[in-house]
Amino acid sequence: MTDQGRSAASSPERSSPELTVKLADDYVATLEINRPPSNYFSVGLIKQIADACDELAADSRCRAVVLCSAGRVFCAGADFTDAAAISHPGGPHLYDVAIRLFEQPLPVVAAIQGAAIGGGLGLAMAADFRVASKEARFAANFALIGIHQGFALSVTLPAAIGQQAALDLLYTGRRVGGEEAHALAAQVAAAAPLAIRSIRATMRGQLAAQARDAMARERAEQERLMQTSDWREGLAAVSERRPANFAGR
After folding, report:
1. Which of 86, 160, 244, 245 suits 107 as a labelling partner, its CA being 20 to 30 A distant?
2. Backbone angles phi and psi of 243, in degrees to 5
3. Helix 153-161 and helix 207-225: axis angle, to 10°?
4. Sheet strands side by side (includes 175-177)
């Protein structure tokens, strides 16, 4: 993501091969995911994002965050072909780490230039705003691969688009195209930072607690459904680029 019209960034607070953090002198930090081509997340990557947000929140030079990705895809969610995509033996589960994105205090704008699919949509919905290019597309495709939605989409999606629209996306798994919009982070950062944090805390209310409760149920349902033949068929269908033939077992 380019910083056109923005002053030169200072040294990154925290950077790695998978996540670049740049803090500009307009109080806006940019966190860029770099796991091409699909920008799948992992437990480690989500932890890096959460750690960066916590560090930036403690830095008076930062008042807002832009979350974006390198390449043509924002985030395709978890790579379920990787057994350790959402948990490591003896380590935290993905959702134990993801809750930190809801608990950190900085306003976040997700800049979505391509697909935000499955858990990638969940990551985008954890932000306060989503700014999409015309090439962006969104899908909660969990039902199409025989699994329950996760990443707190059970609460964030209805809150953003309404219960009926959320059910439409969750039941059908269909893709929705994005529309062009203007960046918001610099405008947010220009406002009084203490007021912004106070307003955000009020408006998001119990979202972090609701997200924690939702992810507990989502995790249980995902683990249950991962034992079904429909889940195995869904994964095979995606891999083979064909319609799935679900049997309901």
Report:
1. 86
2. -65, 145
3. 120
4. 115-117, 137-139, 175-177
Token pair for 47: 């932890």
Q: What is the SS3 assignment for 66?
A: strand
Residue labelled with tokens 């699909």: 38
Distance CA 139, CA 132 (A): 14
Helix (H) or strand (E) holding 164: helix 163-172
Q: What is the pTM of this model?
A: 0.79
- For the structural domain made of 19-181+191-240, what CATH number should be given? 3.90.226.10
Helix, strand, coil percent content, the chain, rounded in steps of 5: 40, 15, 40
Distance CA 217, CA 154 (A): 10
The neighbouring-strand residues paired with 22 are 30
Q: Which amino acid is at 16?
A: S
Q: What is the pLDDT of residue 99?
A: 96
Q: What's the alpha-carbon Rg for the chain, to the nearest Å? A: 18
Q: Cα(103)–Cα(86) distance, rounded to whole angstroms?
A: 20
Please check whether residue 66 is in contact with residue 109, taking contact to mean a CB–CB distance below 8 angstroms: yes
